[in-house]
């Protein structure tokens, strides 16, 4: 009996031990601190990448996922106005009567088997689309102050200080300046001047991409050369000095390699014309008509031309790209010499940006290195590997140039990293998995029950009708 | 003749979750042994010897039954991932695993004994919320292996016994996680469920050169579990977009999958010594040969994400543990026991996944044995598992962060001799 008693004491000891439990840490999520940065009035200056342009157009459905919008949300900015545009948006295909690109099929059902053949086409405008007032609402279009997101698709470096409308833009006809800057209502002011009107306390500046991108995406034809590096340096320094007069803190981002985007890398230089063997395409290169090599880049815009026999791009009946009589036009090919010119421009611009920013104590978001690393090694995030591949890589939208909703989130995080480092801040990163979840339609029990908003959004995204909230 | 546009299409890979590792191995197969940290290969002097070292059953006279159960209550958490929020803290849902044992031994004559064991040598699992950041790596994972293990033991000469056994191994796995269909931004859930039967062997040797000293060796060659005809099921939301729904249906069909999983070789040696009349100590060294586990290949009957085979690299390392146990015999009826185990990780840092948040562990045990009467003995233990915090900085899955874990284990065994 005595020993049994001892056993009971032991058992009660065991119960005591069962209280052992895993200790939770004091901090279970990052709390926002903007550190030495002041985000009370945040303004973003830039081009399409800042505007939130993707899949060939600017639309409110995706402007909601612009990288400055992400930063504003993460930094606790209460007011961040954007020039939100009605579906299907304004962009590359507006003049041909359509807005944003849509993936109609991952693989053309009429050509089953073989290499998947996606069908991507812009969504036609619905009847009555108001091109004169494409804003999402009266409130947006008639906002009595400049937008916080002053990213203008197509803006070149020179435009930041100089362009006030389509006519004064570098291209001479970029109507996004009219949409974003809304002159003459704002007194004929530029991006820089409108930023100043907002008395910004913090700015992100990502500009200069178009000083080489247009050259690359036009196959070295329009314009015929990137902005000369001397001019780029002069303009960039002038822009930084002007922006610094606002007194705002800022970070600038450099320029990712324009020759490594899906627009350049998706179509192989050799294609099977139906004989079971891939043969190098015949191209109009800067050194004459010749067969392409792995060093030449065939642009995404060559898609509809390769094999065309209509006579629109060469003699009728001769498939384009397979015969010296009908080479792929130079506008859809970035040949190896042009690749070298574009790459050199990117390198020169980035060196310039690094030097000028450092001289002014401005931190640089090294998007170029980030993208090169992603291109080389992929970027796994919580089990999902992002790559620079078209359609399946997750980073790029359907135009092969601009990031996707998730791509912009990843870029926002690169900005946040730099801001946190520079300003001793702890702005939480965008939770990529949460965004993935947000983008995904919600269904309970595997069928039938929908989250109505999510459902409407998705139907809107894929059918071309405006989402209903 | 010519496709207008050919795009290189990188296939969506469904990487299968890892299905096992040393953290899934359960060495708590008897309350007496576990109270001494599982340092029992040399002593091997109750019915659980069928598991720990079957050579030991030659010393058990007559017919003996053993029934036991262990309650394993692990707690895991993860802080990260660093590329989402370095501080974000997620606790796995707490689970209770009750691996149970049944043993039988029968001494045919002075030299020859037969035994039988039923136990769960590999098991456990993990359960994370469906919407947690690591959902694409693991949500619900469970592995179970039931062993039906007859053994025969033979005493070659006084003090030297050998044994051999064969096991029918029933294996069950269930692995759940989320799959993201990137081109359309749709999250779905995937579930792999499979069961199979394999054959395993175990061998034991026990040598007692003196009354005080005992030496033991136990060896289990690796066991192949060929999972065939398992169910791979996908649950995606109906998006309402016909093209999207058709693509998802085509890319993620509910199909059958197969995979070969080799349970690792186990080699253990032990030495025990009776220090005083009442005090016995044992020290064991044990190794699980995971290094042969280089990759996991899952084959699908129908292509999933365009592929009929998914290869996941594993690159595990052999893991070993050191076990120390002591027993103090208070009187004829009551024994008190203590144990300590150092258990080393099998999964290299870059491959750690939340399905099995393993790491180096220290385990402390305490227990008792009480002889209720001539026939019945009851043993009990409590074991505290403390896992070293493990900070990953080179995850191949982009899932860096810190894993923490601990566990409470309780167990009781009854042995009845006729």
Automatic annotation (TrEMBL), chain A:
Organism: Caldithrix abyssi
Pfam families registered for this protein in UniProt: Lipase_GDSL
Record key words, sorted: Signal
GO molecular function per UniProt: hydrolase activity, acting on ester bonds
Signal peptide extent: 1-21
Domain of life: Bacteria
Keyword Signal set for record: yes
Record bears the keyword NADP: no
UniProt protein name: G-D-S-L family lipolytic protein
Taxonomic lineage from the root: Bacteria, Pseudomonadati, Calditrichota, Calditrichia, Calditrichales
Gene3D superfamilies, per database record: SGNH hydrolase
InterPro entries referenced in this protein's UniProt entry, alphabetically: GDSL, SGNH_hydro_sf
